[in-house]
Design brief:
Helix content is 36%, strand content 15%. The protein has helices at residues 21-37, 55-68, 83-95, 106-112, 137-145, 156-167, 207-217, 233-242, 273-278, 283-289; strands at 8-11, 40-45, 77-78, 99-102, 151-154, 173-177, 183-187, 197-199, 222-226, 249-253. Helix 7 packs across helix 8 (233-242). The longest helix is centred in the N-terminal third of the chain and has 17 residues, at 21-37.
Amino acid sequence: MPTTSRPVLRFAPSPNGPLHLGHALSALTGWAWAQRLGGRFLVRIEDIDPERSSEAHIEGIFRDLAWLGVPWEEPVLRQSQHLDRYEAAADRLAGLGLLYPCFASRREIAEASAAEGAPRDPDGAPLYPGLHRAMPAEEVAARRRRGEPHVMRLDMKRALAIAAERLDGAPLDFVELDEEGAAQRILCDPARWGDVVIQRKDVPTSYHLSVVVDDACQGITHVTRGCDLYAATDIHRLLQVLLDLPEPLYAHHRLIVDEAGRKLAKSARDTSLAELRAAGATPADIRRMIGLL
């Protein structure tokens, strides 16, 4: 893993749609922190989703950043080129007895969690009810031989037990920086996420696994990102402890929302930076629109 005496920050978009104002805020916030700290600024392309990622969107990301006046270092890391790295990390977790296969479909999980008052994770999704956590080894082997698709889930209870041993009485927490740089330690509660997916059905990783592995491999010292990922830091800190990875500092910024208070999203086809640029907007206009001027 790289070592550096300078802070290292990153902007890590997924190329499954054009960048919008929310991405502009994230990129400009990260770049501002890098300037303020005298650090380096990297771009990472999180393209582990083979069906939704595209070269056109990657090229659009670079155009938008250049237009905004956000420089970055080369080379740019692309997650799709490092799947073996994530698979090796998953193998380490499996070696600790922390992963198990889950063959349940989303529909089966939703139906099993449909009872009124059933727990949900911080994102509002039904909490995985442990359908296949204790599946007999013989059945697992038979279903794998038949080629049944499955994910690999983290046994949260066991993971927390191992993490507690490694922390030797210290709390599982992270350092959150406010806009002025003041630090506060925040206690983590990974159990509220349940047995999270570590390896998806289509690729040998997940967002949670790949992001902590990449942050470590790139020597990221400060993670700046939207507050919609604040709760996910619970999982990331747990994985960092389990995989013996360094702990970065975190700064979760506000989100850009519409008039109804909804977070902007590519899936909702919110107005893109490219569309705003084509309509005559300038980088200064973008900064005003996201409250940076």
